[in-house]
Amino acid sequence: MLSVFVLVNAVLIAATCAGAGFLVVAAVMVRRFAAESAPVQQRGAAVTVLKPLCGDEPNLYENLRSFCTQRYPKFQVVFGVGCADDPAIAVVERLKAEMPEVDIALVVGNHVHGANLKISNVINMMRLARHDILVLCDSDMRARPDYLEAVAGALQEPGVGLVTCLYTGRPVPGVWSQLGAMFITHSFLPQVLVGRLVGARQGCFGATMALTRQTLERLGGFESLVDKLADDYALGAAVRALGLRVALSSHVIETQVNEPDFLTLWRHELRWGRTLRSIEPAGYAASIITQPLLPATLLLVLSGGALYGAVIFVAVMAIRIGYNLMVDATLKVLPSPLWLLPARDYLSVAVLLASFCGSGVTWRTQSFHVNSDGLLTLDGDIRP
Question: Is there a smaller number of Cβ atoms within 10 Å at the N or the C end of the chain?
């Protein structure tokens, strides 16, 4: 019995140390990434920004407006909705009225091309896209005025077929939104940078997917993504299959995080978790080591509050707090509430474990199953 206790303690100590080490490495990588500067490039060809919309969202007007105030010389913004009574239409019409000098188009189309309703929306939008550089980004993103310069500039680099961006989370008021934003800023973003350090394949993120029309046509258009849950990952993989690179821009944008209750947050993160599991199950499972507070807590409990357990827990908590403060300051985001750190780490582990216990996901108001290839199977009828 004693040997089992010693073994469990050794495993928890090792897991805690590995997690603490990850935080130190992640902090360094965030600092280095923030210090990177975008290569100086000539402004490229005209750009069409594709913004698929679905319903109203907190700060939707401000988010969409940020893409209409770019300092790029020639660009078009195409918004798309799936039905004529979508409340996002009013926001788009307001932008068109306030900024007549900006080339803004709206597509209202209810034709469903596949299970991925966002991509169906984008396919409908493409009939009004006029330019050779296409930048697809989610509706909850907010960009600085130099966003298109950075993205279009990176697309000019030799061998680059697609440009993507990392993003931070900006929560609306509320504990659940705070927890969601903390995951994006302190887990997702640093993990991508550590992955880049160890040579992991560069991901592609829905925050920004920029490519030329010619590259898209070689891939079979957006139609090739209509049944993919991880359409961003699938697009990046298809570009790499052409022998082109997926480049990570040094430009970081911002996503508005709105999680009104625990169930919404849980479903959102579980969908994300099962998406990652379908893409790279071993790597996603291994990411459990990036959460050191759980093994430190278990060690404290199992040791009965022994001095060594308390010292390790306090040390890990100090590292976790310092890590959060450094990341927030480096990325210039609003400081996250430190008292939520344990809950954030415990929730991340719970989502990871639950992601391996089923295949169902909820997207907007519809339920799907995702298979090992990332293909979506709808439960019931598709509702545009």
Answer: N
